[in-house]
Amino acid sequence: MRTQITKKTIRQLLSGSLLVFASAAHAQTAGDTTSFKPSGNLWGYVFGDYAVKTQNDSLQRGGGNVQYKGTNSLNSNNTTANTNVPANVQSNAFQIRRMYLGYDYNFAKNFSASAVLANEQTLLPNNQNTTYLKYAFVKWSNIWKNSDLIVGQYQTASFATPNGTEPLWGYRAVERTIMDMHNNDGSTDLGVSLQGRLYTCKNAKDAERPTFVGYVLQVGNGASATPATVPFKKVRGNVFLSTLNQKLVIGLYGDYMTTQLSPYNTSNSTFKAYASYKTEAFRIGVEFFQQTNMNSDAYLVYNPDLKYAPLTTASMASGVQQGVSVFGSVKIVKNKLNLFARYDMYNPDTKWNSNNVYTKAYGVSAAAGNYLSGATTFYTQNFVTAGLDWTPDRRFHLMPNIWYNSYNSMMSSSGPDGTGKAYSTRMVKDADVVYRMSFYFIFNSSKKVSNNGMY
């Protein structure tokens, strides 16, 4: 009997509560003629190319997200030769490099959610396009004045957030930014992001408005779109000034993440500075980054008497990656035709010493008891792209362009490699050259068109 009475009482309480909340909601709606109405938007975009590769690097170099690395075909990292095709025949192919399908939903006055599925080329040995969840987050707008809180799989502040270098470059459909290209950070991560404006100049001249200082502060797994494998978290921060009616953007970015504690402590830390200026006629920008990979290198110092010390006495050092990217675009015919170009310089390790014998470097390790050797391990890169952006419609772009990446070995021409052989036969300076007709189109999107330099 007691059990029945308890259940009945609970049902009555729940029913009464629902009636009270329903009445309050009805009264609020009846008295508020501007009540919020949920809304959503399904959108997406696709970009790809018809590409012809006319020159291949003879040592098949290139790492990270370098598009046409290590191959004699347009299929990235596919080193299996086709014996039915003569070596002097140029490789050519149609290819979709990315497709996004997204949905944005505003479910309350200050709350929204976004999810994006991506189908992209992985640039892994199997070279297959992969479909995965790229972004999925909830945003609490104005959690306090001029600041938004984002929880979930978000865009990273390293280059992908608003007023970052990817939207400022404007031609992701042509190529990644320099940090993305060399895999210094991913465009997505799982965690918490707080972003907004630190300061707004209320007395700015009309020609300078809006003038504000923006910020992004993030804590995430540091594992991009893959599951976390270490307990450490990656902290990212970006501060930028936007002024002259958003024509001028100047920003500073930094991040830090511990990667292991033993047998020795390793970590990655990044500093980046960038600036972009645009007018109705042109845009020009520059970014510089430096990433320190602490205790990433293990090497043996050359000793004239002992030659090389045993591997057990290898010294540890921190590698430093550096890169500079200069980009720009010019409007030839308003809203119809642009000219764009970019030049990158990248050094994978400014602390590299060709007189040392390395057994380990960031992202590369020799087999037990062996040495790293060969020009395929350490080399600088110079990247150039240039082309036209023809826009028959503001959501459809055709972009004939050239993609060029050169490689120059950092090895000494006569230095040691642990085998007594010289490097002279591996001191080749070479390049990958690709001519492309790239395309980019956006579908069913009511929001502002992004990821291109026209708007």
Q: What does this 3D model show about the protein?
A:
This protein is mainly beta and 455 residues long. The N terminus is likely disordered. The protein is globular, with a radius of gyration of 27 Å. It has 3 helices and 20 strands. It starts with a helix and ends in a 12-residue tail after the last strand. The protein has 2 domains: 34 residues; 408 residues, Porin (Beta Barrel), CATH 2.40.160.10. Helix content is 9%, strand content 51%.
**Fraction in beta strands:** over 45%
Q: Overall pLDDT, averaged?
A: 82
Order of helical and strand elements: HEEEEEHHEEEEEEEEEEEEEEE
State the total count of DSSP E strands: 20
CATH C-level of the largest domain: Mainly Beta
CATH superfamily of the largest domain: Porin
Number of helices: 3
Percentage of residues assigned to helices: under 10%
Q: What's this model, at a glance?
A:
With 455 residues, this protein is mainly β. 9% of the residues lie in helices and 51% in strands.
Outline the fold blueprint.
Blueprint: H1 2-31, E1 39-55, E2 91-108, E3 111-121, E4 129-144, E5 147-155, H2 165-169, H3 178-181, E6 188-200, E7 212-220, E8 234-243, E9 248-260, E10 266-278, E11 282-300, E12 302-303, E13 307-308, E14 315-333, E15 337-347, E16 357-361, E17 364-365, E18 379-393, E19 396-409, E20 430-443
Antiparallel strand pairs: 1-2, 1-20, 2-3, 3-4, 4-5, 5-6, 6-7, 7-8, 8-9, 9-10, 10-11, 11-14, 11-16, 12-13, 14-15, 15-18, 16-17, 18-19, 19-20
